[in-house]
Amino acid sequence: MNTALRLSVYGAAVLLLAAGAYVAGTSAGTSTGHLRPPPAHAAPREDTPEVRPAGLASTADGYTLEAATPTLPSGAATEIAFRITGADGAPVTTFDVAHEKRMHLILLRRDTAGFQHLHPEMSGDGTWRAPVTLDGGGTYRVFADFTPTGGEPATLGVDLSAPGPFEPVSPQPSRVARVDGGYEVQLDGDLRPGETGPLTLTVTRDGRPVTDLQPYLGASGHLVALRTGDLAYLHVHPEDAPGAGPGITFHTEVPSAGTYRLFLDFRHDDVVRTAEFTVPTTGNAAPADGPAPAGPAARPGPAGDEHSHDEGGHR
Ligand SMILES: [Cu+2]
C-alpha cells in the first residue's frame, strides 16, 4: 500500500468513525426515541390531577390531630379526648360552625365495623372530649372533621388501639340496609371513579315510605363515605334543599375504583340512626377483594340484603 492510499484509507476510517458517532448521537438524541429523555407524560398530567382524599393523614396544612392517649378501653363507657394543634404546636381554639357543629368526630374500627358519629365539646384549652363506648377490641380510626377559623375545612385521622378480642367483618356488597326500629334504607346511584354523581337513599319503615324525616345537621341526613383498604374519607355534599323523605340525595365523587363503605345518619322520631352500605364502583374492573358488580344498574337480590347491623356482616 502506498502512502497516498494509506492516507486515504485512514481518512475514510476517520470519516466512518465520525459518521458513526454522528449516527449514535442523533439516534440518542432524536431519532429512535428509546434513549430520549422521558416524554412529557412522565410528569404530572394537568388533565388528571392527583386526587388526595382526606382523612389519611394526622397532619395536613399545618394542623395536627393529637389524641390524648393512644389507647381506649373497650366494653365500657369511656371518654375520647383530643386536640387540634396549629403549625406552632399550640392548640387551636377557634373553629367555624359547619353542618351545625364546630367539630364532627367519626370513629369506626379499621375493618369498618362499629361506626359512630360524635360531636365533642371543647374546653378552654382546646381539648375536645366526647363520651364513647367501644364494643370490642381492635384498631380504631378516628376522623376529626372541622374548619379552623380562618382556614380551610380539614379532615384529619388517627388510629387508636383498644384491648380485647374482636371478630373482623368482611362487608359484602349491599345496597339495602336494615336498621333497628323497622327501617329499611335503599341506596340508588352508582359510584364512578373520577366522576361526581348523585346517590339517593330512600327510607321506609315497616314497608311504608318515611315522609317526615327530621333535619339532621342542617340537612335531610348526613352521609360519610370511606374507601375500604385505607379508609380514605370522601367529601359528600347533600342536596341544597333538605326534604322530609323518603328520598335523600347526596353528591359524591370517588377518587378510584374499589369498594366503598357508606354510612347514612338520619333522624326520625327524635332518634338518629345509621344505615350502612357497601358499594363497589362501576365502570372499572372489579376490585380484587370482592365479586364483580352485576352492572351499572345492579340491584341486589336477597343476597344483597344480608348485611345489617344485627349480624355485622360476619362471614
Ligand atoms: Cu357531625
Question: How would you characterize the overall build of this protein?
Answer:
This protein is mostly beta strands and 315 residues long. The protein has 2 domains: 59-162, Immunoglobulins (Immunoglobulin-like), CATH 2.60.40; 176-285 and 296-305, Immunoglobulin-like (Sandwich), CATH 2.60.40.10. It is built from 1 helix and 19 strands. The chain has one helix at 3-31; strands at 59-60, 63-67, 77-85, 103-109, 116-118, 121-122, 127-133, 138-146, 154-162, 176-179, 183-188, 196-205, 208-209, 222-227, 233-234, 236-238, 247-253, 259-268, 271-280. The strands form 4 sheets. Strands 10, 11, 12, 13, 16 and 17 form a 6-stranded antiparallel beta sheet that branches. A hairpin with a 3-residue loop joins strand 10 and strand 11. It is globular, with a radius of gyration of 28 Å. Mean pLDDT is 80; it is low at 9-49 and 285-315. It binds copper (II) ion. Residues 101, 104, 117, 119, 217 line the site of copper (II) ion.
Beta strand %:
35-45%
Largest sheet: 6 strands, antiparallel
Looking at CATH, the homologous superfamily of the largest domain is Immunoglobulins
Bound molecule kinds, no repeats = copper (II) ion
Assign the CATH topology of the largest domain. Answer: Immunoglobulin-like
How far do the termini sit from each other? 91 Å
Low-pLDDT stretches are 9-49, 285-315
Strand and helix order? HEEEEEEEEEEEEEEEEEEE
CATH architecture grouping of the largest domain: Sandwich
Total strand segments? 19
Task: Determine and state the CATH class of the largest domain.
Answer: Mainly Beta
- Kindly state the mean pLDDT as a whole number? 80
Question: Structural class per helix/strand content?
Answer: mainly beta
Quaternary state reads single chain
Count of helical segments? 1
Number of domains: 2
Radius of gyration: 28 Å
How would the global form be characterised? globular
What share of residues is helical?
Answer: under 10%
